[in-house]
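TA notes, week 10

Several of you asked for a full example with nothing omitted. So below is the full record: structure tokens for the whole chain, then the designed sequence directly under it. When grading your own attempts, check the secondary structure regions first.
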């Protein structure tokens, strides 16, 4: 790009200068970024506007490194060297000779723009200035400073030492060399950089919006409480954490700033409208893990919930089960049912006799019904609610995400027309094939479908595509 300052000698690829790296903001993210930068061999200067915050962050890093040594995950020598590379500083000016400064101040455009103006004025023209913003366009953060080609987005994830991914975001004026150097810095920190576009939430946070927001709406609508929603996400979706555990980890206040900024930047897109839950928690001082209360209450060791139950073993079963649909899920349910001892029959194969369960695993099953079913009926609630799929008949609803075998949990739901017999037969079948069964309120996609879809309550087609999606 014309006029771009020389960050590296021409032709040297992405060699990084042997100068310190600066981190601005010593909160949750700044602390983590400083830790991985020092761990990657860089000398780090850490600045925070709050008195003593940078020192406290370095002390916390020291505690974490000590714990890693005690647990045999690091050596004393490596921990001491990492700690020696961390320098708390008391003035922004002390970052003047850094080759790169990473900003991790609050998610507020005005704060970030002020900081960037100050940093641009005091650092040399070669210094890369990166923002760890979660949602604000990098182009907006860079506006109003000289040499905006040196401004990039460098989005880390929480907790930084555990999360390998870093999004590298090009603003409209970011220069190629600044971006290349940023990717290299990320690699030095032991992270995996990916390029992401400069839109609201970039890539990962845009995908995680429904996960967090739909979960709050489900709780508001009493489809399930936060314990159950998190358990469904872990056992049914394979997530390490459910949406409420994640919100507590991020910080309820930080998450709410991100949610509001995301909503405004997307021109008030209705599906991204924040709910009223976070401001109430914030008013009550329940900011998540950092205040030991958020959605959960944390004890001194950080414990907040019971262990998840271990995987269930399939039981032996007998009888006929009819499974309708040509989806991946239907195929996998057939295999599991056969493995358990059920005889799996189809509509067309002329078998007679009562079915232990008739499972309608078609996606587009809203109101289609099953002609004269020879047993109790359970319908897949993927894009539909049970109310839509059953049209008032005595059906139960279910939802689980393939691949079955990895999924350990199925959600079931019942409506006013669902008999005890149908509910019991449905639960019995899923128990028999080795699933944990939970009951939730009726909503399109049930909990997991709602939280993992784009917010339109329809899971991505790729999730369901089988031999032929019906
Ligand atoms: N928390 C997360 O999970 C997460 C994940 C990815 C990105 N982010 C983003 O990282 C940034 C920081 O988030 P956080 O969770 O670390 O917040 P935090 O509240 O834990 O820390 C922010 C720190 O910035 C300091 N600060 C405030 N104004 C400052 C200024 N003018 N100069 C220097 N320091 C200042 C505060 O004293 C505080 O220590 C935000 O932009 C946030 O959106 C957060």
């Amino acid at each position: 790009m014309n006029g771009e300052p020389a960050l590296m000698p021409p032709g040297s690829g992405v060699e990084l200068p042997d100068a310190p790296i600066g981190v601005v903001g010593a909160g949750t993210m700044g602390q983590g970024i400083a830790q991985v930068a020092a761990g990657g061999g860089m000398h780090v200067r850490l600045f925070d506007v709050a008195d003593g915050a940078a020192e406290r962050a370095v002390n916390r890093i020291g505690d974490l490194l000590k714990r890693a040594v005690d647990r045999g995950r690091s050596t004393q020598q490596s921990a001491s060297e990492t700690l020696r590379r961390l320098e708390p500083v008391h003035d922004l000016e002390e970052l003047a000779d850094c080759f790169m400064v990473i900003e991790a101040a609050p998610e507020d455009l005005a704060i970030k723009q002020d900081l960037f103006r100050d940093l641009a004025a005091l650092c040399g023209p070669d210094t890369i200035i990166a923002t760890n913003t979660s949602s604000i366009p990098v182009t907006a953060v860079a506006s109003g400073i000289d040499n905006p080609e040196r401004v990039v987005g460098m989005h880390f994830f929480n907790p930084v030492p555990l999360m390998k991914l870093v999004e590298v975001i090009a603003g409209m004026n970011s220069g190629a060399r600044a971006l290349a150097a940023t990717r290299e810095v990320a690699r030095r920190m032991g992270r995996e950089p990916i390029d992401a576009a400069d839109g609201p939430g970039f890539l990962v946070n845009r995908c995680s919006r429904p996960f967090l927001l739909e979960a709050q709406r489900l709780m508001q609508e009493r489809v399930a409480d936060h314990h159950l929603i998190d358990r469904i996400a872990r056992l049914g979706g394979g997530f390490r954490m459910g949406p409420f555990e994640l919100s507590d980890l991020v910080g309820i206040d930080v998450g709410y700033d991100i949610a509001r900024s995301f909503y405004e930047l997307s021109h008030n897109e209705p599906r991204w409208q924040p709910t009223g839950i976070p401001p109430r928690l914030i008013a009550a001082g329940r900011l998540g893990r950092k205040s030991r209360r958020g959605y959960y209450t944390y004890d001194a060791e950080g414990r907040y919930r019971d262990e998840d139950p271990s995987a269930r073993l399939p039981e032996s079963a007998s009888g006929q089960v009819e499974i309708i649909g040509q989806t991946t899920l239907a195929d996998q349910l057939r295999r599991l049912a056969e493995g358990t001892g059920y005889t799996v029959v189809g509509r067309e194969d002329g078998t007679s006799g009562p079915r232990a369960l008739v499972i309608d695993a078609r996606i587009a099953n809203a109101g289609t019904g099953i002609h004269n079913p020879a047993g109790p009926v359970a319908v897949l609630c993927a894009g539909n609610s049970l109310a839509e799929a059953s049209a008032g008949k005595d059906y139960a609803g279910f939802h689980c995400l393939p691949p079955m075998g990895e999924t350990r949990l199925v959600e079931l739901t019942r409506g006013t027309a669902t008999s005890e017999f149908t509910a019991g037969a449905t639960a019995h079948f899923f128990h028999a094939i080795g699933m944990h069964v939970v009951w939730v309120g009726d909503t399109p996609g049930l909990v997991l479908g709602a939280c993992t879809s784009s917010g339109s309550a329809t899971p991505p087609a790729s999730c369901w595509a089988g031999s032929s999606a019906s």
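The longest helix spans residues 53-70. Use that as a sanity check on your answer.
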